[in-house]
């Protein structure tokens, strides 16, 4: 009890120094938490994807298309429940900075296969009936102030030209990590237009999405699909949606590792700063530790006072940092939604934040604790007559 | 045959040196003397003569190179560190030149410190602390922090802290060195009272001849050797 009282009072003895240290730890924890969340975000697509859906794409690369004729052959495969298809459209709304993902899909099969996109049934019907119709995610609609019935024009990049759409529905995500920034329109609209302007690229799709009768058939069906298109002009590569998403993450693994390294460097820097503060504090109080030892207190008491103070300061900073991480993440999610459509702090990140703060406290306290608890009394009192 | 009271402190052939780089600097050389129970002894000598080192050795906060110190029948020079700490806590009270109070603790809490290592209850500790603070005339200042007290008052808190476990021996290193004349007089009077009223044995290092005059006996140290008054 005495140790606790003493270490808490000691912690706030130099208020400015302590507050600056706490602020430093808090900022480091916010940075650490946000960077860890950014890493998690990288995997958000993987997490949100299903292991019971397959993606079939061109075996050479995703940029090469597959014939639309494959859909009927895939549909006939044992274990396949339904097939949908689509193309990455890559359209730009007014300016490149307004980026959001947009796809041409087959509406009926696609929306049936992706129940995570929650949309009013009347809007689904309206979308299905309008060849130029599109549905858009809630966040993108809010970002540009779009409403159902609005006309939107995208500038094609992969498929050149001005593409007009009418918003027929706005979807919400069933889960927190569902992407609410995408736009979907009719694949037929794309294909018919391409037939007129770029005939050689007509009747081709970027990828097939396949739902299975049983998730455990994923490996078997994948192999069977790729086998039937082997030695064709467009061989396929079929994998689960999770593996497909993971392949995108792998492409940017170097960035991911760099972010992870930076997140740890931030913690190491604050560790050094906190250690310096604690060393300074312990040095100033050597005579007090010597006095306590003179009175009969042992090294363990002194260690408790110094180590405890270090941990108290670091943990206050850690808790403050965690508390600030949530508003910071909310700000990123709302103000930078075009880059980070979902930016929610995972409970695991909070645990890592607090663990990082604890590590800072422990490491910062080691040297001063050792020095304070092993000091010779006579040296500490600095009196040699 | 007359019966003689055994000394409370017996120092025999005590030597101590410090290492400074490659050099060994002798601080105390073959010191021997006794202190009787209830004696007020002053140690004087120029700076560097070894008087504070001698005080530290008697108080059990430093280790001698050779020789023995026996206090109350216990040879403290052979005690291991942990036992020495426990012995110190129960047998010696410390009074420092700069009071050495913990600034974040009140006068009450500073005085209570040595009692935290005993098995006393909270209530018993409170009674002890209030008693000694009344003894040093600071009963009304027990909730004050050291920064809210004058130098003389801080030294009285330090004396109360030294007294609270009721040790037989008090060691004082320049207890009046940081005080004005009036406060120094008050502190010396208080120490005198502890000797005569409570039978404490006080060993005091001082540069102040006026403080030394209060002592029953004076020991002079010169270059680590006793020059007079040993016995």
TrEMBL record, chain A:
It is found in: Cell membrane. Pfam families: FtsX, MacB_PCD. Residues 261-374 form the ABC3 transporter permease C-terminal domain. The chain crosses the membrane at residues 20-43, 254-274, 295-322, 342-367. It comes from the Bacteria. It is a multi-pass membrane protein. Keywords: ATP-binding, Cell membrane, Membrane, Nucleotide-binding, Transmembrane, Transmembrane helix. One of its GO terms (cellular component) is plasma membrane. Its main location: membrane. Coiled coil: none annotated. Residues 18-227 form the MacB-like periplasmic core domain. GO terms for molecular function: ATP binding. InterPro entries: ABC-4/HrtB_transporter, ABC3_permease_C, MacB_PCD. Signal peptide: none annotated. This is ABC transporter ATP-binding protein. It comes from Geobacter hydrogenophilus.
From TrEMBL, chain B:
SUPFAM superfamilies: P-loop containing nucleoside triphosphate hydrolases (SSF52540). GO terms for molecular function: ATP binding; ATP hydrolysis activity; transmembrane transporter activity. Pfam families: ABC_tran (PF00005). One of its GO terms (cellular component) is membrane protein complex. Keywords: ATP-binding, Nucleotide-binding, Transport. Residues 9-230 form the ABC transporter domain. Belongs to the ABC transporter superfamily. Macrolide exporter (TC 3.A.1.122) family. This is ABC transporter ATP-binding protein. It comes from Geobacter hydrogenophilus.
